[in-house]
TrEMBL record, chains A, B:
Annotated protein name in UniProt: Phosphatidylinositol-4-phosphate 5-kinase, type I, alpha, a
Positions of the PIPK domain: 1-233
GO cellular component: cytoplasm; plasma membrane
Compartments where found: Cytoplasm
A GO MF term: ATP binding
């Protein structure tokens, strides 16, 4: 699907495109459209293909690079599964995070796409996640839904300290187990304790970051989303 | 409403904004919000105020200029009412066309706004109408709905000949009555007859115009709109 998309002629994204789900069946023995393979029959669904291609273009992700990163090398499974029970994978070139999501989450993300489009076109400095694609693999009666996102913490960026801030002080301290890691992810109460002076930013940077966070929060509020974190490193 | 909008702080347009209708009651004797006036009581409704303000900004229309052009001088009634039965007015500074529309049309236009937003953000050279605002005046039990658009034919542009092209040859000839005007609006069959060589455009201009028309048509098609004209002058 990723491959065929890159060959399609470019055209504008229309409102309808957000609701499209492209579905391709991959029988074991191959078909006119799909190669033979040595797994069980499966179906590959791409949500809103034209819209996500637009987003990838906006983020400067070339179609062939995208396909190569995701399909040509094994993915690295990440240990931290988060509170949601999702599994996380990293592309071996360190570019993309692949996250499994529940049916409800995938549906919700798809519903957000028109608003997401509007935000990207108005608020280029947005700190919200970069969503590159949403897919579902159907095999043996099971659905595995995955979302492809940017890797916020590429290994090229050296992290001295890492904070996951939610703006709450309720149970917001890194666990003893987390603190044993090489680069632990600290939380709000750790930040208050260890960084009493806060972080010093130049005047324009400070106002740009504040303005961006305000705009992002307005969007999240309109989506009725309150579960978010600001990752500071 | 126009005035109060310009004082509001700027913020991003959200998907919800397309559905908003702002309604202000203007009693004859005045109120906290509105001045007294010597007409009957009326209600002024502004459709999608935040979205249309975004469009006006995109089109480079300053809020105070807009208000001044529409409210400070008398409008000029145009004689050509078109096939739709709409009335047309021109602002005295030659900038804006004000058109009355039926309930259905206003509703339809409002429904198109998200797609219109998407088009403006992707296809800046679009030849589709510029919509600046949609309003409804309720007075004496009657609703008058108006849409404010750009004036396609400002008098500063000298027109030698004018064609309204629909790409059809069925009944597409200017009427004898039309031809008596100083600058008649000719139609497709007149174009074929009088402009046998067509119009010569430079290579890049030609392809730019073709590409733009294709993209505009794709959008119109997605809106299920087939009643359109290309005005050539």
């Amino acid at each position: 699907t990723v491959g065929s998309l890159s060959q399609k002629p470019e055209r504008d994204v229309l409102l309808q495109d957000f609701e499209v789900v492209e579905s391709i069946f991959f029988p074991n023995e191959g078909s006119n459209l799909t190669p033979a393979h040595h797994y069980g029959d499966f179906r590959f669904k791409t949500y809103a293909p034209v819209a996500f291609r637009y987003f990838r273009e906006l983020f400067g992700i070339r179609p062939d690079d995208y396909m190569y990163s995701l399909c040509n090398e094994s993915l690295i499974e990440l240990s931290s599964s988060g509170a949601s029970g999702s599994l996380f994978y990293l592309s071996s070139d360190d570019e993309f995070i692949i996250k499994t999501v529940q049916h409800k989450e995938a549906e919700f993300l798809q519903k957000l796409l028109p608003g997401y489009f509007m935000n990207l076109n108005q608020n280029r400095r947005t700190l919200l996640p970069k969503f590159y694609g949403l897919y579902c693999v159907q095999a043996a009666g099971k659905n595995i839904r995955i979302v492809v996102m940017n890797n916020l913490l590429p290994s090229t960026v050296q992290m001295h300290q890492k904070f996951d801030l939610k703006g709450s002080t309720y149970k917001r301290r890194a666990s003893p187990k987390e603190k044993e890691k090489t680069v632990p992810t600290y939380k709000d109460l750790d930040f208050i304790q260890d960084m009493q002076e806060g972080i010093l930013l130049e005047g324009d940077k400070y106002s740009a970051v504040c303005k961006t966070i305000q705009r992002d929060c307005l969007l999240l509020q309109s989506f009725k989303i309150m579960d978010y974190s600001l990752l500071v490193g």
